[in-house]
Write a structure and sequence with these properties.
Blueprint lengths: L9 E4 L3 E8 L2 E8 L21 E7 L1 E6 L2 E6 L3 E4 L4 E5 L3 E8 H20 L1
Antiparallel strand pairs: 1-2, 2-3, 3-9, 4-7, 4-9, 5-6, 5-8
Protein backbone atom coordinates (compact mmCIF):
# COMPACT_ATOMS: atom_id res chain seq x y z
CA UNK A 1 0.00 0.00 0.00
CA UNK A 2 1.49 3.38 -0.97
CA UNK A 3 2.02 5.93 1.78
CA UNK A 4 3.71 9.24 2.47
CA UNK A 5 4.58 11.23 5.56
CA UNK A 6 5.53 14.84 6.09
CA UNK A 7 9.14 13.67 6.47
CA UNK A 8 9.23 11.45 3.35
CA UNK A 9 7.45 13.87 0.99
CA UNK A 10 9.16 16.00 -1.66
CA UNK A 11 9.76 19.53 -0.31
CA UNK A 12 9.08 22.73 -2.26
CA UNK A 13 9.88 25.88 -0.31
CA UNK A 14 8.25 28.97 -1.81
CA UNK A 15 9.23 31.32 1.01
CA UNK A 16 5.79 32.16 2.36
CA UNK A 17 4.58 28.57 1.79
CA UNK A 18 6.25 25.22 2.30
CA UNK A 19 4.63 22.38 0.34
CA UNK A 20 5.66 18.80 1.13
CA UNK A 21 3.90 16.50 -1.31
CA UNK A 22 3.77 13.14 -3.04
CA UNK A 23 1.56 11.45 -5.60
CA UNK A 24 -0.34 8.37 -4.47
CA UNK A 25 -2.07 6.60 -7.35
CA UNK A 26 -3.43 9.74 -9.04
CA UNK A 27 -3.93 11.83 -5.92
CA UNK A 28 -1.58 14.45 -4.55
CA UNK A 29 -1.10 14.38 -0.80
CA UNK A 30 0.23 17.71 0.46
CA UNK A 31 1.46 18.81 3.87
CA UNK A 32 1.32 22.60 3.56
CA UNK A 33 2.59 25.24 5.99
CA UNK A 34 1.66 28.90 5.44
CA UNK A 35 4.33 31.10 6.99
CA UNK A 36 2.50 34.34 6.13
CA UNK A 37 -1.04 35.45 5.32
CA UNK A 38 -1.62 34.84 1.62
CA UNK A 39 -4.41 35.94 -0.70
CA UNK A 40 -4.14 33.65 -3.73
CA UNK A 41 -6.44 35.81 -5.90
CA UNK A 42 -3.66 37.20 -8.14
CA UNK A 43 -2.07 33.75 -8.46
CA UNK A 44 -5.20 32.20 -9.98
CA UNK A 45 -5.57 34.68 -12.86
CA UNK A 46 -6.09 32.93 -16.17
CA UNK A 47 -7.88 29.90 -14.75
CA UNK A 48 -11.62 29.63 -15.51
CA UNK A 49 -13.35 32.44 -13.59
CA UNK A 50 -9.90 33.23 -12.10
CA UNK A 51 -10.61 30.57 -9.46
CA UNK A 52 -9.02 27.26 -8.53
CA UNK A 53 -10.72 24.48 -10.48
CA UNK A 54 -9.15 21.63 -8.52
CA UNK A 55 -11.20 20.05 -5.74
CA UNK A 56 -9.41 19.58 -2.41
CA UNK A 57 -10.20 17.51 0.65
CA UNK A 58 -8.22 18.22 3.77
CA UNK A 59 -7.72 18.77 7.45
CA UNK A 60 -6.52 21.89 9.26
CA UNK A 61 -3.85 20.75 11.71
CA UNK A 62 -3.04 24.21 13.09
CA UNK A 63 -4.24 27.79 12.51
CA UNK A 64 -7.01 28.86 10.15
CA UNK A 65 -7.69 29.71 6.53
CA UNK A 66 -10.48 31.41 4.62
CA UNK A 67 -11.85 30.21 1.28
CA UNK A 68 -13.99 32.36 -0.98
CA UNK A 69 -16.67 30.62 -3.00
CA UNK A 70 -18.97 32.27 -5.54
CA UNK A 71 -21.62 33.17 -2.96
CA UNK A 72 -19.80 33.10 0.39
CA UNK A 73 -16.60 32.85 2.41
CA UNK A 74 -15.87 30.02 4.83
CA UNK A 75 -13.28 29.87 7.60
CA UNK A 76 -11.66 26.51 8.33
CA UNK A 77 -9.91 26.26 11.70
CA UNK A 78 -7.66 23.76 13.48
CA UNK A 79 -9.54 20.49 13.86
CA UNK A 80 -11.78 21.08 10.81
CA UNK A 81 -11.93 18.65 7.92
CA UNK A 82 -12.83 20.49 4.71
CA UNK A 83 -13.87 20.11 1.09
CA UNK A 84 -13.24 22.90 -1.39
CA UNK A 85 -15.02 22.20 -4.69
CA UNK A 86 -13.85 23.68 -7.99
CA UNK A 87 -14.41 27.45 -8.13
CA UNK A 88 -12.78 28.57 -4.87
CA UNK A 89 -10.09 31.08 -3.94
CA UNK A 90 -7.95 30.78 -0.80
CA UNK A 91 -8.04 34.38 0.40
CA UNK A 92 -6.47 34.31 3.86
CA UNK A 93 -4.20 32.14 6.01
CA UNK A 94 -3.26 32.77 9.60
CA UNK A 95 0.57 32.72 9.72
CA UNK A 96 1.70 29.29 10.90
CA UNK A 97 -1.35 27.48 9.50
CA UNK A 98 -0.70 23.83 8.66
CA UNK A 99 -2.98 21.64 6.55
CA UNK A 100 -2.97 18.17 5.06
CA UNK A 101 -4.67 18.21 1.66
CA UNK A 102 -5.72 15.59 -0.90
CA UNK A 103 -6.28 16.59 -4.55
CA UNK A 104 -6.60 14.86 -7.93
CA UNK A 105 -3.04 15.04 -9.30
CA UNK A 106 -3.84 16.14 -12.85
CA UNK A 107 -6.19 18.96 -11.83
CA UNK A 108 -3.66 20.12 -9.24
CA UNK A 109 -0.88 20.07 -11.85
CA UNK A 110 -2.90 22.42 -14.11
CA UNK A 111 -3.57 24.79 -11.21
CA UNK A 112 0.06 24.71 -10.08
CA UNK A 113 1.21 25.59 -13.63
CA UNK A 114 -1.04 28.67 -13.67
CA UNK A 115 0.17 29.70 -10.20
CA UNK A 116 3.83 29.32 -11.24
CA UNK A 117 3.24 31.45 -14.35
CA UNK A 118 1.53 34.15 -12.29
CA UNK A 119 4.25 34.08 -9.62
CA UNK A 120 6.86 34.60 -12.31
CA UNK A 121 4.90 37.49 -13.83
CA UNK A 122 4.47 39.13 -10.42
CA UNK A 123 8.21 38.88 -9.69
CA UNK A 124 9.16 40.32 -13.09
CA UNK A 125 6.53 43.06 -13.04
Amino acid sequence: MPKVSRESAQVEDHGVVEDRHADLDGYAVSFVTFRDDIDATPLLKGLPDDRCQCPHWGYVVKGSMTMRFGDREEVFEAGDAFYSPPGHIPVSHEPGTEIVQFSPSEELRLTAAAIAKNMEALQVG
